[in-house]
Specification:
about 140 residues; alpha/beta; five-stranded parallel β-sheet; 5 strands; globular
Protein backbone atom coordinates (compact mmCIF):
# COMPACT_ATOMS: atom_id res chain seq x y z
CA UNK A 1 0.00 0.00 0.00
CA UNK A 2 2.82 2.39 0.88
CA UNK A 3 4.55 1.71 -2.46
CA UNK A 4 1.30 2.45 -4.36
CA UNK A 5 0.84 5.71 -2.49
CA UNK A 6 4.42 6.83 -3.20
CA UNK A 7 4.00 5.92 -6.88
CA UNK A 8 0.73 7.85 -7.03
CA UNK A 9 2.23 10.92 -5.36
CA UNK A 10 5.30 10.88 -7.63
CA UNK A 11 3.11 10.38 -10.70
CA UNK A 12 0.99 13.40 -9.77
CA UNK A 13 4.11 15.46 -9.12
CA UNK A 14 5.59 14.56 -12.53
CA UNK A 15 2.29 15.31 -14.28
CA UNK A 16 2.08 18.72 -12.59
CA UNK A 17 5.72 19.44 -13.38
CA UNK A 18 5.26 18.51 -17.04
CA UNK A 19 2.20 20.73 -17.20
CA UNK A 20 4.08 23.63 -15.58
CA UNK A 21 6.93 23.26 -18.08
CA UNK A 22 4.59 23.48 -21.07
CA UNK A 23 5.02 26.85 -22.71
CA UNK A 24 1.86 28.93 -22.58
CA UNK A 25 0.63 31.07 -25.45
CA UNK A 26 -1.65 34.10 -25.42
CA UNK A 27 -3.71 35.43 -28.32
CA UNK A 28 -4.81 39.02 -27.78
CA UNK A 29 -7.45 40.27 -30.19
CA UNK A 30 -7.96 44.02 -30.33
CA UNK A 31 -11.17 45.25 -31.98
CA UNK A 32 -11.74 48.49 -30.11
CA UNK A 33 -10.92 51.99 -31.32
CA UNK A 34 -10.78 53.24 -27.72
CA UNK A 35 -7.14 54.05 -26.79
CA UNK A 36 -7.59 53.02 -23.14
CA UNK A 37 -9.07 49.68 -24.17
CA UNK A 38 -6.28 49.12 -26.68
CA UNK A 39 -3.72 50.15 -24.08
CA UNK A 40 -5.03 47.72 -21.48
CA UNK A 41 -4.92 44.85 -23.97
CA UNK A 42 -1.33 45.69 -24.82
CA UNK A 43 -0.32 46.18 -21.17
CA UNK A 44 -1.57 42.68 -20.38
CA UNK A 45 0.16 41.27 -23.45
CA UNK A 46 3.40 42.92 -22.34
CA UNK A 47 3.03 41.51 -18.84
CA UNK A 48 2.46 38.04 -20.30
CA UNK A 49 5.64 38.33 -22.39
CA UNK A 50 7.58 39.39 -19.31
CA UNK A 51 6.35 36.16 -17.70
CA UNK A 52 7.78 34.15 -20.63
CA UNK A 53 4.47 33.57 -22.42
CA UNK A 54 4.43 33.64 -26.22
CA UNK A 55 2.17 36.45 -27.42
CA UNK A 56 0.32 36.82 -30.69
CA UNK A 57 -1.73 39.95 -31.37
CA UNK A 58 -4.61 40.00 -33.85
CA UNK A 59 -5.86 43.46 -34.83
CA UNK A 60 -9.37 43.54 -36.27
CA UNK A 61 -11.91 46.18 -37.18
CA UNK A 62 -10.96 49.53 -35.60
CA UNK A 63 -8.13 47.83 -33.74
CA UNK A 64 -6.43 47.33 -37.08
CA UNK A 65 -5.76 51.07 -37.22
CA UNK A 66 -2.97 50.47 -34.68
CA UNK A 67 -1.01 48.79 -37.48
CA UNK A 68 -1.42 51.53 -40.08
CA UNK A 69 1.63 53.68 -40.81
CA UNK A 70 1.25 57.26 -39.63
CA UNK A 71 -1.76 56.61 -37.38
CA UNK A 72 -1.18 57.74 -33.83
CA UNK A 73 -3.48 57.47 -30.88
CA UNK A 74 -3.76 59.27 -27.57
CA UNK A 75 -0.94 59.32 -25.04
CA UNK A 76 -1.93 57.26 -22.01
CA UNK A 77 -0.91 57.87 -18.43
CA UNK A 78 0.87 56.90 -16.25
CA UNK A 79 3.67 55.90 -18.65
CA UNK A 80 2.90 58.57 -21.27
CA UNK A 81 2.94 56.17 -24.22
CA UNK A 82 0.47 55.54 -27.02
CA UNK A 83 -1.04 52.15 -27.83
CA UNK A 84 0.99 52.34 -31.06
CA UNK A 85 4.20 52.61 -29.05
CA UNK A 86 3.10 49.71 -26.83
CA UNK A 87 2.46 47.61 -29.93
CA UNK A 88 5.91 48.45 -31.30
CA UNK A 89 7.44 47.42 -27.96
CA UNK A 90 5.66 44.09 -28.08
CA UNK A 91 6.90 43.50 -31.60
CA UNK A 92 10.47 44.32 -30.59
CA UNK A 93 10.14 41.81 -27.75
CA UNK A 94 9.10 39.11 -30.21
CA UNK A 95 5.31 39.17 -30.35
CA UNK A 96 3.72 38.19 -33.64
CA UNK A 97 1.30 40.90 -34.80
CA UNK A 98 -1.22 40.53 -37.61
CA UNK A 99 -4.30 42.27 -38.92
CA UNK A 100 -7.43 40.23 -39.55
CA UNK A 101 -7.84 38.87 -43.07
CA UNK A 102 -10.87 41.12 -43.59
CA UNK A 103 -9.20 44.32 -42.41
CA UNK A 104 -7.29 45.39 -45.53
CA UNK A 105 -9.93 44.54 -48.18
CA UNK A 106 -12.60 46.38 -46.18
CA UNK A 107 -10.54 49.48 -45.45
CA UNK A 108 -9.07 50.25 -48.89
CA UNK A 109 -5.58 49.72 -47.47
CA UNK A 110 -2.76 47.57 -48.79
CA UNK A 111 -0.10 45.53 -46.96
CA UNK A 112 2.38 48.34 -47.73
CA UNK A 113 0.24 50.64 -45.55
CA UNK A 114 1.02 48.55 -42.45
CA UNK A 115 3.94 49.24 -40.14
CA UNK A 116 6.94 47.01 -40.73
CA UNK A 117 6.61 43.60 -39.15
CA UNK A 118 2.80 43.41 -39.15
CA UNK A 119 1.39 40.61 -41.26
CA UNK A 120 -2.01 39.64 -42.54
CA UNK A 121 -3.54 36.73 -40.65
CA UNK A 122 -4.69 33.62 -42.47
CA UNK A 123 -7.94 32.32 -40.95
CA UNK A 124 -6.77 28.68 -41.11
CA UNK A 125 -3.57 29.56 -39.21
CA UNK A 126 -5.47 31.46 -36.52
CA UNK A 127 -7.97 28.61 -36.14
CA UNK A 128 -5.17 26.06 -35.80
CA UNK A 129 -3.41 28.27 -33.26
CA UNK A 130 -6.61 28.68 -31.21
CA UNK A 131 -7.18 24.93 -31.13
CA UNK A 132 -3.88 24.26 -29.39
CA UNK A 133 -4.40 23.26 -25.79
CA UNK A 134 -1.94 25.79 -24.38
CA UNK A 135 -3.43 28.96 -25.92
CA UNK A 136 -5.41 31.41 -23.83
CA UNK A 137 -7.30 34.29 -25.39
CA UNK A 138 -8.10 37.88 -24.49
CA UNK A 139 -10.40 40.02 -26.59
CA UNK A 140 -10.66 43.77 -26.30
Amino acid sequence: MKKVLVTLVLGCFWALQANADTASELLVTVNSANPQTQGMALVLATQAMEQKVGVRVLLCSEGGQLAVKGKESAVLKPRNVTPNQMLQGLMKAGAKVEVCALFLPNSDLKPADLIDGVGVAKPADIAAYLLQGNVKTLTY
